[in-house]
Amino acid sequence: xxxxxxxxxxxxxxxxRLRYETLRQPWDQPEGSERVEDDATAIHAMLVDDNGEAVxxxxxxxxxxxxxxxxxxxxxxxxxxxxxxxxxxxYLEARAxxxxxxxxxxxxxxxxxxxxxRNGYEVVEETYILFGTIQHYRMTKQL
Length: 143
Prior knowledge:
Strand content: 35-45%
Radius of gyration: 14 Å
Oligomer: single chain
Strand order of the largest sheet: 1-2-3-4-5-7-6
Largest sheet: 7 strands, mixed
């Protein structure tokens, strides 16, 4: 497994497909809802297996010169629980540091809070409820 930054149309197709399948489709959201306006200015990371298939996705966006934000973390359902998300976190944290970030923030779904805690993030506050059912928490980490 390796983390790549999608660059070709084929890689981005795999990236967005997995983003939809892991973060939108289970809640009956329409295709296209996995994309957001600032995707063009973000750094996208995709964990691929030995066959080049997408296994995990996440993105980094710099909110300010000193603060990055991670969004859209997802691991393919059949690969969850294997600590693969750690590879994406480490990759994007390193990228954020090279860009000058001193901290990272994210909005964690309730079922992912412990994953982020194990990776050094702290809950700052309870925030919003997505799709009427998924509680989110703002979390931060000093780099």
